[in-house]
Amino acid sequence: MTIKEKVEAGIKEALKAKDQRRLSALRMIKAELLLKEKETGKTLEDSLADQALQKMLKKYQKARDEYRSLNRPGEAEQYEDDMKIIEGFMSAPMMDESQIRTELERVVAELNASGPKDFGKVMKAFMSAHSNADGKVVSAALKGMLEK
Fold first, then answer.
1. Which domains does the chain possess?
2. pLDDT tens sequence across 88-137
3. Cα 58 to Cα 62: distance, rounded to the nearest angstrom
């Protein structure tokens, strides 16, 4: 079952259960997948669907952080719930910062990277192997490692 099919099945379940919150989130996911499908002009494969979901997840993380900084926990919690739903449909969950650091240390050691001049080489190797990592988090962690 593809990601798109899973989302459509989830919409049907949410309709039957009358779960408006989940239904709303699933409809947003479906809309994002349809946009990605229109962009590419072909049927959506799971790898492209994952990219669309990662992009959506990043938007939701940013919105959640904004609401937290504005001291509006109710809205931030809604985005948090939506993020959990989005992650449930991703083939590989997003890596958290500790996982990223652990993997980066391994890649840095593997490539014998010693300073800032090796940043591009390590970044390329890491991101090609871990598409489920946030590039900004990876970049910041890698800069810290290579400056030591």
1. 3-89 (1.10.1510.10), 97-147 (1.10.10.410)
2. 988 777 788 888 889 988 988 888 888 888 889 888 888 888 877 888 88
3. 6
pLDDT in tens, 56-98: 998 999 999 999 999 999 999 999 999 999 989 887 777 888 8
DSSP conformation letters of the chain: --HHHHHHHHHHHHHHHT-HHHHHHHHHHHHHHHHHHHHHTSPPPHHHHHHHHHHHHHHHHHHHHHHHHTT-HHHHHHHHHHHHHHHHHSSSPPP-HHHHHHHHHHHHHHHT--SGGGHHHHHHHHHHH-TTS-HHHHHHHHHHHHH-
The vertex-52 CA angle with 40 and 128, nearest 5°, equals 90
